[in-house]
């Protein structure tokens, strides 16, 4: 298993397949929303046999509790 940065040109169809298999997306519109999210995040894939088989994505943020960050 190899970990590397997500490459939309290479990995987009594979990660769409993964998310359809687990029921997280169903329609073309949801795939487009997923693509927009991944463009704005830091994403990596785990590659098995030359194809993305797992995806992790993170975004910057902060947590506010009451009036404090």
Descriptive account of the structure:
The structure is a single chain. This protein has 69 residues and is of the alpha+beta class. The chain has one domain (2-58). Helices cover 38% and strands 28% of the residues. The chain has two helices and three strands. It has helices at 8-21, 28-39; strands spanning 2-5, 42-48, 51-58. The protein has a three-stranded antiparallel sheet with strand order 1-2-3. Strand 2 (42-48) and strand 3 (51-58) form a beta hairpin. The mean pLDDT is 94.
Keywords:
single chain, 69 residues, alpha+beta, three-stranded antiparallel beta sheet, 2 helices, 38% helix
Structure summary:
By secondary structure, this protein is of the alpha+beta class. 38% of the residues lie in helices and 28% in strands.
Secondary-structure map:
Layout: E1 2-5, H1 8-21, H2 28-39, E2 42-48, E3 51-58
Task: Detail the poorly predicted runs.
Answer: none
Largest sheet: 3 strands, antiparallel
What is the count of DSSP helices, taking H or I runs of 4+ residues? 2
Strand content: 25-35%
Shape: globular
Distance between the termini: 38 Å
Q: How would you classify the helix and strand content by structural class?
A: alpha+beta
Lateral arrangement of strands in the main beta sheet: 1-2-3
Counted beta strands = 3
Report helical residue fraction: 25-40%
Rounded average pLDDT: 94
Q: Which sequence of SSEs, written as H and E, runs from N to C?
A: EHHEE
Q: What value does the Rg take, in angstroms?
A: 14 Å
Domain count, please report it: 1
